[in-house]
């Protein structure tokens, strides 16, 4: 499903953030990417979305080299990815409800389905009383939960979660991780980046450990060891 | 597809209403631009009108000697008509001239008495020649008439008084219209740049939003659409405002303009050319709004 082939990313002029990254995540797999802050987790996720281009090497999604396809195909792929970004990337001019419904509108979903599904997911993440608020009127944790709702709403094949629990208390963290596990049980591929030891250890999933831009460990049912 | 279009419209109107400050600024600069275009169009029309008035007034009258026969005059008329500068030649006989005079001044006792005392018909037969109004052609025609060929027939050619006025008016007109058009054009270009930069600034403030929309997989048109529709809304509102301003302006300034340009009714001119005004205002308002938005968004879509 996702394949990194000798990927190196150097930020000009000479900051090597990722070096010779090789791994493959199969469909339905749950992969944790762990590492200290600055290890290159966010860059790795941005590479999957085509937000950054690798300096060398290729990234394949469903067999397609995402840096060699045209814009409309790339957008099609992105629609199939639910992204939870470390900086949330919410639409600041849209309300909580609209932030989620926008994703469905982009997909071309019917209005009926939107009015039915959006309240459901917002209820799940505990934002049902915040429909008409704007993102800057929410707390950090609420913004993060909105980002989660937005990533899940379209039932995407791939979920990229970049430290989705970074701003959440243990209870909410647990809820979010549970949601991701549930999606995984439904057959979705999950890439979770985290530097939260407890979360990773509890999950008992595959762990890829990044250190200074290199993969130093890649274990099934791994643990957070740095 | 239709569903997408409805959604794009919905986004456009919501964003328009949510960002009232931005919308007002954009509408304001568009109103200035459209008003400039309207004024330019109006001056163009007014100067055209002025030219037409002058052209119709530029004529030459050749008075023939009393004893010249009608058929000889007709011969001259035919000759002159062949000249390409001549628009129209009218033969006015002695009797016709007297009739015209009587009709014009019949009420005036002093003149009627004077005419009676002179006795008979004091008028000379004449040819009234209208040219295209170009001063050079005018000179050429009068040269022909004053030339040797006609010297025996023609008593006098009446043109010299008007010549100077005509020349001045022509040079004024051409320099006024030239500088006016150039100045107007420069102003409009500046105004368009101001519009473009205003819209560019507002769109830049939404740079992050645009990139997020791309990250979640929206197509370029789905992102660009609402901005373009907003540009069209700005333009349309600017058009409506300018239309009302120009309607009232031409109505209330009508008297003032009349004194500057005698015989020119600005309001009537506006009404009789209303479709051209509407077209120019819509093209400038909506056109500039839409094109500015299009280019302002384009630079942020490369995510
Ligand atoms: N756009 C960028 N330009 C230059 N350096 C960057 C850029 N993005 C990230 N970096 C650098 O790359 C390194 C890895 O960053 P990141 O991928 O965000 O790590 P992590 O998510 O693991 O904390 C950091 O040193 C960061 O400063
Ligand atoms: Mg990060």
Topology:
The complex is a heterodimer of chains A (226) and B (303).
Chain A (H helix, E strand, L loop, with lengths): L1 E10 L3 E11 L4 E5 L6 H8 L7 E6 L2 E2 L5 H9 L1 E4 L11 H12 L3 H14 L15 H13 L5 E5 L7 H16 L3 E6 L2 H7 L2 E6 L2 E6 L7
Parallel strand pairs in A: 3-8, 3-9, 6-7, 7-8
Antiparallel strand pairs in A: 1-2, 1-4, 4-5, 9-10
Chain B lengths: L1 H17 L1 H38 L1 E6 L5 H13 L3 E7 L1 H12 L3 H10 L7 E6 L3 H12 L1 H4 L2 E5 L1 H45 L2 H9 L4 H33 L1 H7 L5 H7 L1 H25 L5
Antiparallel strand pairs in B: 1-3, 1-4, 2-3
The structure holds adenosine-5'-diphosphate and magnesium ion.
The site of magnesium ion has 5 residues of chain A, from helix 1.
Proportion of residues in β-strands of chain B: 5-15%
Shape of chain A: globular
Percent of residues in beta strands of chain A: 25-35%
Q: Regarding CATH, which class of the largest domain in chain A? A: Alpha Beta
CATH superfamily of the largest domain in chain A: P-loop containing nucleotide triphosphate hydrolases
Kindly name the structural category of chain B.
alpha+beta
Mean pLDDT of chain B: 82
Strand order of the largest sheet of chain B: 2-3-1-4
Query: Termini distance of chain B?
Result: 24 Å
Average of the residue pLDDT scores of chain A: 92
Bound molecules: adenosine-5'-diphosphate, magnesium ion
Low-pLDDT segments of chain A: none
């Amino acid at each position: 499903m996702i394949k990194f082939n000798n990927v190196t990313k150097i930020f000009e002029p000479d900051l090597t953030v990722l070096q010779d990254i090789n791994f493959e995540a199969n469909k339905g797999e749950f992969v944790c990417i762990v590492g200290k802050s600055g290890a290159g987790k966010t860059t790795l996720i941005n590479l999957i979305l085509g937000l950054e281009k690798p300096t060398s090497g290729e990234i394949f999604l469903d067999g397609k080299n995402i840096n060699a396809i045209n814009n409309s195909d790339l957008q099609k792929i992105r629609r199939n990815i639910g992204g939870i970004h470390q900086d949330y990337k919410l639409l600041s001019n849209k309300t909580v409800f609209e932030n989620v419904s926008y994703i469905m509108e982009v997909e071309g979903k019917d209005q009926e389905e939107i009015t039915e599904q959006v309240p459901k997911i917002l209820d799940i993440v505990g934002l049902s009383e915040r429909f008409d608020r704007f993102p800057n009127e929410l707390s950090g944790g609420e913004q993060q939960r909105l980002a989660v709702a937005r990533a899940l709403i379209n039932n995407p094949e791939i979920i990229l979660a970049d430290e989705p629990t970074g701003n959440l208390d243990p209870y909410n963290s647990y809820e979010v991780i549970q949601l991701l596990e549930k999606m995984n049980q439904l057959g979705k591929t999950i890439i979770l980046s985290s530097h939260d030891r407890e979360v990773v250890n509890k999950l008992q999933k595959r762990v890829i450990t990044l250190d200074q831009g290199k993969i130093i460990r890649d274990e099934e049912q791994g643990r957070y060891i740095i | 597809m239709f569903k997408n279009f409805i959604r794009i419209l919905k986004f456009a109107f919501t964003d328009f209403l949510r960002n009232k400050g931005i919308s007002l600024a954009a509408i304001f600069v568009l109103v200035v631009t459209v008003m400039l275009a309207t004024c330019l169009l109006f001056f163009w029309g007014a100067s055209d009108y002025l030219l037409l008035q002058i052209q119709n007034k530029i004529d030459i009258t050749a008075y023939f000697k009393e004893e010249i026969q009608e058929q000889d005059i007709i011969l001259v008329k035919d000759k002159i008509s062949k000249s390409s500068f001549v628009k129209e030649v009218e033969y006015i006989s002695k009797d016709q001239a007297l009739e015209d005079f009587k009709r014009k001044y019949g009420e005036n006792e002093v003149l009627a008495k004077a005419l009676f005392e002179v006795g008979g018909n004091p008028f000379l037969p004449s040819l009234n020649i209208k040219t295209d109004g170009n001063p050079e052609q005018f000179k050429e025609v009068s040269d022909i008439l004053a030339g040797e060929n006609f010297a025996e027939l023609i008593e006098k050619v009446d043109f010299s008084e008007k010549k100077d006025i005509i020349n001045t008016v022509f040079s004024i007109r051409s320099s006024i219209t030239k500088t006016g058009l150039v100045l107007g054009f420069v102003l409009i270009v500046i105004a368009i740049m101001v519009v473009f930069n205003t819209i560019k600034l507002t769109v830049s403030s939404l740079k992050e939003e645009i990139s997020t929309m791309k990250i979640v997989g929206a197509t370029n048109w789905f992102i660009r659409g609402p901005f373009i529709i907003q540009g069209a809304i700005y333009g349309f509102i600017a058009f409506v405002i300018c239309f009302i301003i120009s309607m009232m302006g031409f109505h209330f300034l009508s008297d003032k303009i009349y004194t500057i340009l005698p015989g020119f009714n600005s309001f009537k001119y506006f009404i009789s050319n209303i479709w051209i005004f509407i077209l120019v205002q819509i093209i400038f308002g909506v056109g500039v709004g839409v094109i500015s938005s299009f280019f302002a968004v384009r630079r942020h879509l490369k995510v």
